[in-house]
Specification:
This protein is an alpha/beta fold. 34% of the residues lie in helices and 9% in strands. The chain has a domain of 114 residues: Rossmann fold.
């Protein structure tokens, strides 16, 4: 039974909370709802091991679909995959909890990570995007009237502000201390 409808709607280059409108919960479903780069896949793998009670390798991305992912195609096939699953289902989301429907019979797992660490991990992640990945995300943004623009690119490579500032000083620092992020 629906305990709480989503409080807010979220739409970005990556996610669209409206895609959860077609989700039909089952008792025991698990929703792993975490921000990007804080341990989502790691948590999915732990839940996979607990559900199947086996260390046999399984494709977590197929077993634990990402419903709110908007850049890999329409939601219909994702919902069909979820509906066809006969095991205890565990689903992925990068939405905040107030963007998800909350059901009595569904369990929710949220993972947190230090903000600076998560941001640096995310920056490292997007710096590895291929031209094809950027094109897909750009298209998702352009197709969404509320966004209407390509995904912004990182301004500088990781760590460049720190290194530039260090070099601009022109002198060796008083303390031999370096911050490693």
């Amino acid at each position: 039974m629906l305990e709480r409808a989503p409080v807010r709607e979220f739409r970005s280059w990556y996610c669209d909370s409206r895609r959860w409108d077609g989700y039909a919960p089952r008792p025991g479903d698990v929703v792993i709802a975490t921000p990007p780069k804080v341990g989502t896949t790691w948590t999915q793998q732990i839940v996979n091991l607990l559900i199947f009670q086996s260390a046999e390798p399984r494709p977590v991305s197929m077993l634990s679909p990402w419903i709110d992912n908007r850049f890999k195609g329409p939601v219909g096939p994702v919902l069909e995959t979820i509906e066809a699953q006969t095991h205890r289902r565990f689903l992925k989301s990068h939405l905040p909890l107030d963007g998800l429907p909350i059901y009595d019979e569904v369990r929710y797992i949220h993972v947190a990570r230090g903000g600076r660490d998560a941001c640096m991990s995310y920056l490292n992640h997007i710096n590895g995007y291929t031209a094809l990945a950027w094109a897909g995300l750009d298209a998702a943004g352009m197709d969404e009237p509320q966004i209407g623009r390509p995904l912004p690119r990182p301004r500088k490579p990781r760590g460049s502000s720190f290194i530039t500032g260090w070099r601009a000083g022109g002198q060796r620092p008083v303390l031999d201390v370096a911050v490693v992020l």
